Amino acid sequence: MKHSIATVSLSGMLPEKLRAIAAAGFDGVEIFENDLLYYEGSPADVKSICQDLGLEIFLFQPFRDFEGMPRERLTKNLHRAEKKFELMHELGVDRMLLCSNVQNNCIKDDTMIMDDLYAIAEKAALHNIKVGYEALAWGAHVNSYRHAWSLVKEIDHPNLGMILDSFHTLSIKDDLTELAYIPKEKIFFVQLADAPLMKMDVLEWSRHFRCFPGQGQFNLQYFLAPILVAGYEGPLSLEIFNDEFRAAPTEQTACYARRSLLYLEELTRNHLQYNYITAHQSLFSPAPVAQYESVAFLEFAVDESARTELNHWFEQLGFQKTGQHKSKDVSLYQQGDINLVLNSEPDSFAQHYYAIHGPSLCASAFKVSNAEQALTRAKQYGCHTYEGRLGPKEQFIPAILAPDGSLQYFLDNAADIHQTDFFSKPNDQVAYLNSIDHFAIGIPPETMDIWTLHFKSIFGFVTEHELTLADPYGLMKSKVVRSIDSTVRIPLNISENKHTSIARSFTAYRGSGLQHVAFSTKDIFETVAKLQENNLKLLKIPENYYEDLSAKFDLDEQFLNKLQAHNLLYDEDEKGGAMLHVYSEIFGNRFFFEILQRFNGYSQYGANNTPVRLTAQRAANN
Amino acid sequence: MKHSIATVSLSGMLPEKLRAIAAAGFDGVEIFENDLLYYEGSPADVKSICQDLGLEIFLFQPFRDFEGMPRERLTKNLHRAEKKFELMHELGVDRMLLCSNVQNNCIKDDTMIMDDLYAIAEKAALHNIKVGYEALAWGAHVNSYRHAWSLVKEIDHPNLGMILDSFHTLSIKDDLTELAYIPKEKIFFVQLADAPLMKMDVLEWSRHFRCFPGQGQFNLQYFLAPILVAGYEGPLSLEIFNDEFRAAPTEQTACYARRSLLYLEELTRNHLQYNYITAHQSLFSPAPVAQYESVAFLEFAVDESARTELNHWFEQLGFQKTGQHKSKDVSLYQQGDINLVLNSEPDSFAQHYYAIHGPSLCASAFKVSNAEQALTRAKQYGCHTYEGRLGPKEQFIPAILAPDGSLQYFLDNAADIHQTDFFSKPNDQVAYLNSIDHFAIGIPPETMDIWTLHFKSIFGFVTEHELTLADPYGLMKSKVVRSIDSTVRIPLNISENKHTSIARSFTAYRGSGLQHVAFSTKDIFETVAKLQENNLKLLKIPENYYEDLSAKFDLDEQFLNKLQAHNLLYDEDEKGGAMLHVYSEIFGNRFFFEILQRFNGYSQYGANNTPVRLTAQRAANN
């Protein structure tokens, strides 16, 4: 389907916005009136910029507070409308958004409102303009599409139709069934916005917290499906008021905006198929999501000195160096199902990454059911791919760029890099650590929505509820993205404050970076004893924490003493699950390691213990 | 009265918080449990730190989810309470905050809840602990102080009393009259928090948006007065959950926290006196607010080159250099009632300010009814004063430090620095500009509450409603502080985003700084013609803006053409007032000048035109 976006959804000056919109592959735009008003060029200039960029202007918006005003204002309002119709001709757009009146003095009389709407439709007809009426969720009288449609239907004027907006409909939890019964020629335009569910004033919610489809908590496919069933074939358009996007890099926002529409198309197609309704032919249909089985390996960019140091940490953690790359300065460490890679190959991707970010996670690799399929899907979604240089007999591993420019590899059973690319030896040590339970990334706060859309659209992952957690110097928020069956789990951490641990690691990394890797074990006491024997430095937990545990939970004193002796943290969930976990000290103000054991299906991440961990880390590192 | 603050109100590690609290002059603290749990020392260590700092521990908090739980939990909960009582003994505190149960499975039965409260009171008696019961606004069953009091009164146990919290009471708009009838021995503690009025979930509101008394929109004196009438003589304690404070500099936050309690005491004293109730003897009673008559002068820190350049701008604006300081490198510019000062005196406050901030406003001076009184009041509020070095026969001008370290002078009729300190000549030019209408300061976003409290407490100013305005690269917010009769008006501007105009000027200033000075004129067309004749560069306003004006307002075409020819902006308010205003270009990416004329009592600041101004400025400066 055709894709459109309102200029208000992006930051920047109007020409900059239009260039980014065209570059992201949109077919056209809604011109938000203020963007035009504040622009130094004429409407004809804007028309010509759009033509040069291959963008159609689908809509001019908004026209406000028109219908049901005290009678003396009607003539003025019609005059105002005509002025805008003239401007629209210069712009080369034939569709205007008229939003329902929000003024206190709006007269709540359907007959009068219909008279007014008829009057503007007649004026619009003279100018060959189509006026789309949109019910705002906070409209003074008309605040649902159903009310708006009852008026538009009754008026039945060819120049008056409906503009349907997902936010205004889903925010008031309106009944969606009538959407399917609006004749397609009466649907003048469709605007799409997602949003996180929030208990707040709907106007504030709408003005500041809308986001792209897939980034919020609305089920937008339930909104779009009946509109497509009604036969709508016009553009799908994004109208997003969002404080972060207003300040975010224009081109990147436009790119993810476009991807969000593809994602919504796919969701809607699936939803229609699930309900045995023939899907709209033109709906985006990428390769299905591959199955994500595990984290295949994590690759660290290092220099000589960091390699030596991390090699030492890995050994203390019980890893064995089991492979040396045949042609590159790359080593492989192994324990249980865990593979870690240290890369210090000159002039490689890793070393370019190191030059910017220092010792850091430069690539994460995922074991998938079908790597080619995963890559195809990513490409179809417009994701950038990466192809490194290959040595003789080396295997090609499909890779894409994550939002921060690090690599994400897809490996399937066909790939056995240990055999092809490495001189390998078997691991002959006992494995205390078994697998990567999760790994957490610290990202800039304004990129959270981009990252979640990346994992949802390309990987088919789901997100868990965002948590807010106390750092001694501010707040952090954490949102987990994970594969549906939890085989891969990645907490994404952000902080808006300047002096939190995450903010400190941002500074060290100059951008986003690994926060920690959590390894699972099958006997945490034995494992921790072994790690202590290896002199791995564990984060010291204050005694007061254990006093509180004894007040909070039914734990016997002997057990508590054992926890304390091992610096182990304890958490329970509401379903009777429990977790024991322990942290290493921090590697160079950057990342650290966690060792954990889950009991009785505990499915959380020990977030209750995050504040004590953050405070203890600060005490240790100040 | 005694002053206290909960440790959760500040950022940092526990000892750091306690040191800041003592330094700010508090008498004691509430220990927030998590601060203790995460601390590496023992409760006895905390007790001894407090003793060394001269701080009393008034309260241990919170104890949660105790009463009305399913019966099998009661024993566990009492066990938990006893553990905490033991810990409290180590801490040396005899009062615990028990907040009303918020769990879904809380049994909504007053009789059962009273049994449970009686049980904990009995246990507390054994440990010589007093349990204060506090109704949380989102309590599952008990959510008002009146409900809590009906239970506590009925139980009538000496170890069970009330904790009254302004947020939980005022957020639900509860009736305050019963507060005066709680016997003083039953009021175990009083917690105070202000908040901006927000339409949102009360729990979220409470957890993230509380602020210090005087910084929000609650009338805290209406809450505190009846409690004092009841005879309460215990500490006034701040319990503030605020995302900004959690990340703000600990010492500065503690300082303003203390000042907010003094301010609340003054407000409460006035409120009681107004109602013919004898005020609590110990309530803070500073010198009354002086009357603020005008901005006496604005002083710019400059070097040679900025002095030359600004001298030129001032001349273009129609100012005349009318004075040269007798002993310092300081010149005075004058027009109408406006005085501007350029200071490049070596080794002066201005030059130290210049060294950090570059060309900037280093001092603002206010004409007051009584300068000594204004200074006394500021001192009583703990404000830092400043005394510069004086030359022979020079006058001493009382000055205090603003929150950003710039100076604020108080001048009254006794002061005539023009005569004493300057070689002056009379201004022989026609005055086109008459007075300083307002001057706006850009400040770091986390300091907005500090600035407003500064102006409210020291100056007795009021604040206007905060506005959110669109910059092409993000949002800015603006809140006006002004004298009651609007003789002095200062918009405070903030932006959370990195690339807005305000953020850009922050970078230039390395901190807060002047955004613009608005001069009023009595004939704006004549004035602008004169300024254009003087070659003052005005900000060019796009033509589209005037097209829109003609659609929006009843303005004839000739008038509109005249506006456009002068780059004048137009605004109307709802009461029929109007304003015409024009902007200069920006001086070195820092500040600019506005010339305005108000009609028919227009009392706003043309904020409707701020977005077009910001966009035009960006277009001119990119």
From TrEMBL, chains A, B:
Family membership noted in the UniProt record: Belongs to the bacterial two-domain DSD family.
Name of this chain's protein: 3-dehydroshikimate dehydratase
Lineage: Bacteria, Pseudomonadati, Pseudomonadota, Gammaproteobacteria, Pseudomonadales
Enzyme Commission number: 4.2.1.118
A GO BP entry: 3,4-dihydroxybenzoate biosynthetic process
Cofactor(s) annotated in UniProt: a divalent metal cation
Keywords attached to this entry: Isomerase, Lyase, Metal-binding, Pyruvate
Pathway field: Aromatic compound metabolism; 3,4-dihydroxybenzoate biosynthesis
Pfam families associated with the record: AP_endonuc_2, Glyoxalase_5
TM stretches of this protein: none
SUPFAM superfamilies xrefs: Glyoxalase/Bleomycin resistance protein/Dihydroxybiphenyl dioxygenase, Xylose isomerase-like
Top EC category: lyase
Entry keyword Metal-binding: yes
Keyword Cell membrane: no
Alphabetized PANTHER family for the sequence: HYDROXYPYRUVATE ISOMERASE, XYLOSE ISOMERASE-LIKE TIM BARREL DOMAIN-CONTAINING PROTEIN
HAMAP family xref list: DSD
